[in-house]
Amino acid sequence: MTRLLEVRDLRVQFRTRDGIAEAVGGVSYGVDAGRTLAVLGESGSGKSVTAQAVMGILDSPPGRITGGEVLFRGRDLLTMRAEQRRRIRGAAMAMIFQDALSALNPVITVGAQLAEMYEVHRGMSRGDAQRRAVELMDRVRIPAAGQRAGDYPHQFSGGMRQRIMIAMAMALEPDLIIADEPTTALDVTVQAQVMDLLAELRREYAMGLVLITHDLGVVADVADTIAVMYAGRIVETAPVRDLYRRPAHPYTRGLLDSVPRVDHGGGQARRGHADHGRHGGHESHGVHGAHRGGKLYAIRGAPPSPLTMPSGCPFHPRCPRAQEVCRVERPPLYEVTTDAGTDAVANTGADTESGIGSGIGSDGRTSACHFWKEELHA
After folding, report:
1. Considering Cα of 64, then 67, then 70, then 74, what sign does the dihedral take?
2. Which pLDDT score, from 0 to 100, does residue 294 have?
3. Residue 299: closest CA among 336, 257, 237
4. Mean pLDDT on 92-108
């Protein structure tokens, strides 16, 4: 069965004054119709650049796609002519941007911006398009939609603007939505409302959803599968429940440990994390919020610059589990099996240089860590 979207070994470079920066170093992931893939990682990990490359809106120059495939229903978008790709963009796949105020035209009413989608892609008259725009605004629960269609973006709150962006993306009922940090700068109540709306629309239209975020709390109840990115590469993929329960990469565990927990009054304080410091000869960084009022855990150091990527595993300078092999050999994307009786490391056929594999473990799990088994059972 053909996947709705499949990204294979995608590579994106930016030419800068200081040299060539590889922002995306061989990313592979996919999503099926009616399913949600969450792409997690710190700022600068390459999540948004990957999405822009998939949508065909990458600023070029300075950015350029240097390799890989982006298959949408089996057709490679990267080999299509620009006109073919424009017909797909908006009608079959759409994107929700993280800054709705910047993404919307400030001098055109929101109703007119929504109506334009129907006029251009469906050939509707202006009156019919305006009526459909109001229906769409009402569908995403904007109060008094008929009156507010004549308002400008700055007259809406942040949450309402994000609903407008969702409405614009859903206007032509696409098969795939890419949501890039859709809850940025929103309070937690509005975040929950926006995520509930996206989940409802995904179910109603049986569309695929790629949700890009750095907030693990946002995706816990929405995603089916999670892909964790670090330094322009996928370092772990797993079904959402498996990843939250037993991460198989130290970076994923660090992200989980950085989430405050109300029952601990501080950081996550997952089992065994403080012990990691002894594994690689590093000092432990203390108890991560195990007691109320404790210090919130943070992954030490900062993500590497794409201009000066470290040798071996890109995460090893920050990893409490790092050993000599991590400093000299970049791990491929290993298949992960979680049956305690049959655990085995299986190379997915990845290129060791790229750290990217094409396979998925027997239960849908992969990890780009030499010591994934130890991490899984920590």
Report:
1. positive
2. 67
3. 257
4. 91
